[in-house]
């Protein structure tokens, strides 16, 4: 897809599509933006370099800048309880995808009442696996029939991203949902993993961010050479080459079919019955106009009535 040499302008900012193949830009800015108003704890020792927490510390977002698992996000009933669920994102995952989760967590926290125990970020997951990946299936991702027994795999139209769901019996801390993008390999495959008790709407929010058609902004040198041929690049501020087209998704096909049907209907000649109705309406309108004209002509031709004779009092 890319037509420019990799080494040409290595620090040039480009728009990368699809976003899930853009990789990380080395910072977590996009992922932390939705919770920028939460307390930040900068840690000098240990693998976790930055910990952002909700004000009551029930939600924790850890940034492990030098680790394979770059992000670790948890939620608990209170500040000292064990996490109810855990989500991890590896070092290749675009922070824009992480933002799908953190923005939903910020909204859930803002809407929750700590004294009522109604926090959505602690709700039980749905019994139906399809609820978690509905944004993907709505975007045209399809089920792969070759998945192992007890699992479900759904892949993107380009085959370069997907989700694996393990429906087999598991413990509460087992990893049951894995979103992935890119070819297998340490520097090429992005992964987001969720444990069994992760609320369904949080997984769906992450999936929605992953399927977002908006491109990501990267410097050219940040794009892995092994992935470059799978993405479309365009300089920032310039639209992608119109000659470069992506494979249409099933949703694109349906939209095109509907648009063509509407255009055909607009061009199609009217039926005989419809034409008779139009003719009848035309005759009715003409008759009404003639009647109105005749009445006006008659009124103009009639001599004016003489005023009544004045009455005299006796």
Ranges where pLDDT stays below 50 over 5 or more residues in a row are 240-247, 249-314
For the termini, the CA-CA separation is 109 Å
Query: What number is the mean pLDDT?
Result: 81
Helix share bin: 25-40%
What would the principal axes of the Cα set say about the shape?
globular
Count of strand segments: 13
Given the helix and strand composition, which structural class is it?
alpha+beta
Taking all Cα atoms into account, the compactness measure Rg is 32 Å
The count of helical stretches stands at: 6
Question: What amount of the residues lies in strands?
Answer: 15-25%
Strand order of the largest sheet: 2-3-4-5-6-11-10-9-8-7
Helix-strand pattern: EHEEEEEHHEEEEEHEEHH
Q: In total, how many domains does the architecture comprise?
A: 2
User: Major sheet, described briefly?
Assistant: 10 strands, antiparallel
In short:
The protein is of the alpha+beta class and 314 residues long.
Describe the structure.
A hairpin with a 5-residue loop joins strand 4 and strand 5 (69-75). Helix content is 27%, strand content 21%. By secondary structure, it is of the alpha+beta class. A 10-stranded antiparallel sheet has the order 2-3-4-5-6-11-10-9-8-7, covered by helices on one side. It contains 6 helices and 13 strands.
């Amino acid at each position: 897809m890319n037509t420019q040499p990799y080494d040409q302008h290595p620090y040039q900012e480009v728009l990368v599509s699809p976003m899930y193949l853009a990789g990380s830009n080395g910072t977590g800015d996009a992922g932390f933006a939705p919770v920028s108003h939460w307390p930040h704890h900068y840690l000098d020792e240990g693998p976790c370099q930055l910990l952002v927490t909700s004000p009551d510390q029930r939600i924790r977002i850890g940034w492990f800048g030098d680790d394979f698992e770059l992000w670790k996000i948890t939620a608990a009933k209170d500040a000292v309880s064990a996490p109810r669920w855990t989500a991890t994102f590896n070092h290749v995952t675009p922070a824009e995808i992480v933002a799908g989760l953190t923005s939903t967590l910020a909204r859930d926290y803002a809407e929750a009442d700590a004294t009522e125990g109604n926090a959505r970020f602690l709700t039980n997951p749905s019994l139906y696996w399809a609820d978690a990946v509905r944004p993907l299936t709505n975007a045209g991702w399809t089920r792969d029939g070759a998945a192992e027994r007890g699992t479900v795999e759904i892949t993107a139209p380009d085959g370069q991203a997907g989700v694996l769901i393990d429906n087999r019996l598991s413990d509460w801390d087992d990893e049951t949902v894995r979103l992935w993008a890119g070819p297998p390999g340490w520097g090429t495959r992005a992964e987001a993993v969720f444990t069994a008790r992760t609320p369904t709407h949080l997984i769906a929010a992450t999936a929605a961010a992953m399927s977002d058609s908006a491109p990501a902004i990267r410097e050219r040198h940040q794009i892995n050479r092994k992935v470059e041929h799978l993405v479309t690049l365009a300089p920032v501020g310039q639209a992608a080459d119109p000659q470069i087209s992506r494979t249409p998704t099933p949703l694109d096909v349906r939209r095109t079919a509907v648009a063509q049907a509407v255009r055909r209907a607009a061009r199609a000649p009217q039926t005989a019955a419809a034409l008779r109705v139009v003719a009848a309406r035309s005759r009715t309108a003409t008759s009404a106009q003639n009647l109105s004209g005749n009445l006006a002509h008659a009124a103009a031709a009639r001599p004016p009535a003489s005023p009544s004779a004045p009455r005299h009092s006796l």
